[in-house]
Amino acid sequence: MFKYGDLLIVSILVGSLARAFMLRIDYRQFPSFPHSYAIHLTLGMIASTLGALFVPVLLEEEYIAVTFLTIGAQQFREVRNLERESLLKIEETELVPRGSAYVEGIAKLFEARNYLALLTALVTSLIYYYLNWVWAIAGGAIVGYALHFMMKGPQVADIATVEIVPITFKGKNIGIDDVIMMNVGEKEAWERWHKEGIGIKVIPKDEDARATLANLGQRQAIVHDLSILMGVKLDTGMQQFTPLARLNLDSGTLNIIIIPQEPDKEFIKRAIEKIPVLESSERKPLKSKMGRKAAD
Amino acid sequence: MGEEVSNINSILAVITAKKNKEKVSGGVPIFLVDDEDELEQVSMLLARLTLGMVHDLGNGVKIIIKH
């Protein structure tokens, strides 16, 4: 075997597997074409190779070669652009769009996961150098899993409680409680809302959650994911059936109206609870002194 | 040049009964109809054709808006 061959192979393998492991978990947010899988597995392998090369390069005292890490970083930033572009392009074909905040979140995640693969490979090669291959694989797996675990953000269930409520009808205006959300002038549409429409209240647990739920990107993400998970009776040119998410200005409660394909209340509730809180939408006013004082 | 003219969120058409003629005027296409059924039918068709949505102003006047 060539010099450092074993070390490289073990680290690249563990790094690539870590990347594959993260892809598998991600099925819901990812448009899972086999080609996208191929792209991301290959990029993950390239990232792991970069990470794995780090130790041999230092051993050979070729310090200048460390600059290849910066080239790698440059490449992975490209990944983010690629994901963002393709997701924004298919956005036009979505009945309920993801919203740019959600797209940005997914793009960022795909960039970050390459760095995670790189770090996993780097740690594996370090352990391999100091101990042996058994420890290297075990250590790499633990690091890969730990990194992935740390990247998990909160879900809606962590910041709010979800309630299924009936829609209120005031003449042609429909909404939830006192909040008017839509004016439906068409009899047929009104009857469908009356018969099949479902109202959902997402009640924030504290001021942080309130600010987060008020974010338009977060609302769109909730509506998009809900429409994917529960289905939505909607077609192009049928704007009267668009699911909407609007705030109750007094309480900060997020009200959602939707005509789902599957009117199973229990699972609608659970589906919303599982929806991720977007990194870019998360607000923490309570972390500041002013925010805490004002909230009293 | 080349700037796309968008009619999103503007009123595309107004539909009302003949007896409400006084209530409507302006630069938007206005459709006068005879009765409630025709009002429903015409507004629904116009909404489908313009890919818009029917709104009811509550005074017998319906408008089409594309959101």
End-to-end distance of chain A, in Å?
A: 68 Å
| Count of distinct strands of chain B | 4
Count of all domains of chain A = 2
Q: What's the mean pLDDT score of chain A?
A: 87
**Which series of helices and strands of chain A comes N to C?**
HHHHHHEEEEHEHHEEHH
User: What is the strand arrangement across the widest sheet of chain A?
Assistant: 1-5-7-6
Pattern of helices and strands of chain B: EEHEE
Q: Helical residue percent of chain A?
A: 55-70%
Q: What's the oligomerization state?
A: heterodimer
Class of secondary structure makeup of chain B: alpha+beta
Dominant shape of chain B? globular
| First-last Cα distance of chain B | 24 Å
Q: Kindly state the mean pLDDT of chain B as a whole number?
A: 88
The radius of gyration over CA of chain B amounts to 13 Å
- Total strand segments of chain A: 7
Q: What form of chain A results from the Cα inertia axes?
A: elongated
Task: Report strand order across the widest sheet of chain B.
Answer: 2-1-4-3
Structural class by sheet pairing and helices of chain A: alpha+beta
Strand content of chain A is: 5-15%
How much helix is in the residues of chain B? 10-25%
The number of helical elements of chain A comes to 11
Descriptive overview:
- The complex is a heterodimer of chains A (296) and B (67).
- Chain A has 296 residues and is an alpha+beta fold.
- Chain A folds into two domains: 146 residues, no CATH class; 140 residues.
- Chain A has a four-stranded antiparallel beta sheet with strand order 1-5-7-6.
- In chain A, helix 4 packs antiparallel against helix 5.
- Chain A is elongated.
- The mean pLDDT of chain A is 87.
- A four-stranded mixed beta sheet of chain B has the order 2-1-4-3, covered by helices on one side.
- In chain B, strand 3 and strand 4 form a beta hairpin.
- Chains A and B meet through helix 7 of A and helix 1 and strand 3 of B.
